[in-house]
Amino acid sequence: MWEELQLQIVKPAAWFKFGLSLIVAVALYRLGLTVLRLLRPRMSAGFYPALHALLLLSTLLLLLALSTQAFYLTSSPLFGLGRSVIEALQATGGQLLLIVALALVAWSLIGEAAGRIVPSDEFNRRTVRVRTLKSVVESTLKAVVLFTALIALLQTIGVNATSLLASASVLGLAVSFGAQNLIKDIFNGFFILLSDQYGVGDDIELNLGAVSGTVEAIDLRTTSLRDLSGSLHIMQNGQITAISVKSKDWARVVATVDVAYEADVDQAIRVLEQVSRELYSDEKWRGHFLDEPDVQGVTALGTDAITLRALFKVAPKSQYSVGREFNRRIKIAMDTAGISIPYPQRRMSFGDGPLEIRLMQDAPTGQRPTTPAEQDRRTLPVEPGLTHDPDPSR
Question: Which of 131, 113, 111, 112 is nearest to 121 (CA)?
């Protein structure tokens, strides 16, 4: 047997056959392992390891038997077993089993490969692109594996897959006229992914603010958004007519503050500029800025206040935290400088007429309650700003 192996081991065809044998053995092992995992809840704790060990030994024996056929080792005691295995795999039942096993292996490999693609925690366009395409490519490849396995199974049991596909294409053409919205969704989703209009993790508004939130998932047909309240909005891609992306390339904080007309405007502008420069120079916040603050000064003269504005160019999705910190700092700085920030106030007026005050008390025990008429007779008018003394003799 050793002389036969030395003659066959240098042949590329023998190694090719060995590779096929290895794939078949791994596929059948994965199929058996899947069946064991499905049956594990229904068997005793010690029975599963024994069956797993038996599966490993059977797989190893199968690989050795197929290897004798790959290298044509006629003197090996497993040569006959290998021929019987090949004949069994060539039968209809063996082909069905092999197709299912290979499809299962391909499905598992796609899932494992997708799981190894871990996007970076840093938010950038590459990370968004990877997160988006990861789910789309994984689902597409799994659909291809499932479709290919189905066609191979039909061919194995004697169904003419060519005529079936032709009939399916005619039926698909007829269905397409009634599924135009579905086709529109898929086409729109394809171009959204192709042009990288937005992706998973982006903050967007769809259809001029009709739906807004963070993109949680996107495929060829739908886009899923999670808003601030936690609600998940699922919109069909064909219904998307306008897209506003708030986290692409860079963002801007429109930092505004209102001051009273009685305030010193120049001093208020100096305070605004000081707060903006301090926020920009702070080591904790410096990394969020992409450019120096642009203090624009007075931008509006409103009916109740003067509006001052500064613009901060920041990294994507940093506008929210930077804006909150600016609001905190500008409020403290304005209070320190003695500059008031107007806020709406309410004033209540009771008119010029006298106020009517009713004195009510509970009746003592054993005494009848006071009637409403008696209560009205005890009601005394009181002029605004005056007090009434019920005992004039004092």
Answer: 131
